[in-house]
Design goal:
The protein is an alpha/beta fold and about 270 residues long. It has a single domain, classed as Aldolase class I (TIM Barrel), CATH 3.20.20. Helix content is about 45%, strand content about 15%. The protein contains 12 helices and 9 strands. It has a 9-stranded parallel beta sheet. Strand 6, helix 8 and strand 7 form a beta-alpha-beta unit. Helix 2 packs across helix 4 and helix 10 runs parallel beside helix 12. The longest helix has 17 residues. The chain starts with a helix and ends with a helix. The relative contact order is 0.17.
Length: about 270
């Protein structure tokens, strides 16, 4: 059983939902990332999602695009991100870590090498935004052979066939993109999300996490009643950006913000 599967099983026992914060590795500078990961866990994160910096992050809005640019100014590579996870694992062997990124760096490393290096570093899941299920069998096989969960996206436009294709390959959880657009693009429509999650659950038994558009603790509270996980990204990355000149302050501010999301989820009506 992967750490991700174990995490959701443990949460289900107490009828709680996973809080999954996202930050870009190496933003605003590499030395802060591991400390920030630990701070998020202490603030109530159940799973940490770490963005792998990429020059053309096509699914991301301007906020996360700029985060990648800041990290790339420090030449943060996939190798560096894996080293950060390995450092995190020196004192935390329980919290699942998911890498979210794009295919090019993985292609450059090679599927087998990436899966092996990720597993050795302590990575639990990999979400490759621009890898559709029709072309994912090679990478999925390498990941699953090393107990790393391949995580896929579904969207409001995903039909039953696409849901089934994703379900056949995915592990850990499915990431539901709550809106049509890039990260941070629009407000949540809770009723439409609820309807789509019900449709997905008719086909897949995997936990469902919802991201894109989760801006406020109230959004997280609303989603906690219908989803298995709430994913918070752009809101946190904006905090990183606003405090980029004083990176030492970032873990504390992120922790305070994330605690509010955790409280809202745990106290949702």
């Amino acid at each position: 059983m992967s750490r991700i599967t174990a995490c959701f099983a443990k949460l289900a026992e107490t009828n709680r939902q996973a809080l999954i914060p996202f930050v870009t590795a190496g933003d605003p500078e590499p030395g802060i990332t591991v400390e920030l990961m630990h701070a998020m866990v202490k603030a109530g994160a159940d799973i940490v999602e770490l963005g792998v910096p990429f020059s053309d992050p096509m699914a991301d809005g301007p906020v996360i695009q700029r985060a990648s640019e800041r990290a790339l100014e420090h030449n943060v590579s996939l190798h560096d991100v894996l080293a950060m996870v390995k450092s995190f694992r020196q004192t935390n062997n329980d919290t699942p870590v998911v890498l979210m990124g794009y295919l090019n760096p993985i292609e450059a490393m090679g599927y087998e090498a990436f899966a092996e290096n990720a597993a050795n570093a302590g990575v639990d899941g990999a979400l490759t935004v621009d890898l559709p299920p029709e072309e994912a069998q090679g990478l999925v096989a390498e990941l699953k052979a090393r107990n790393v969960d391949p995580i896929f996206l579904l969207a409001p436009t995903s039909n039953a066939g696409r849901i089934a294709s994703v379900d056949a390959l995915a592990g850990g959880f499915i990431y539901y993109v709550s809106l049509k657009g890039v990260t941070g693009a629009a407000n949540l429509d809770i009723d439409s999300v609820k309807s789509k999650l019900a449709e997905i659950r008719e086909i897949s038994k995997l936990p469902l996490g919802v991201g894109f558009g989760v801006r406020e603790p109230a959004d997280a509270a609303n989603l906690a009643s219908i989803a298995d996980a709430v994913i918070v990204g752009s809101t946190l990355v904006k905090i990183v950006e606003a405090n980029a000149a004083q990176p030492d302050k970032i873990p504390g501010i992120i922790s305070e913000t994330l605690s509010k999301f955790r409280y809202a989820m745990d106290n949702a009506a």
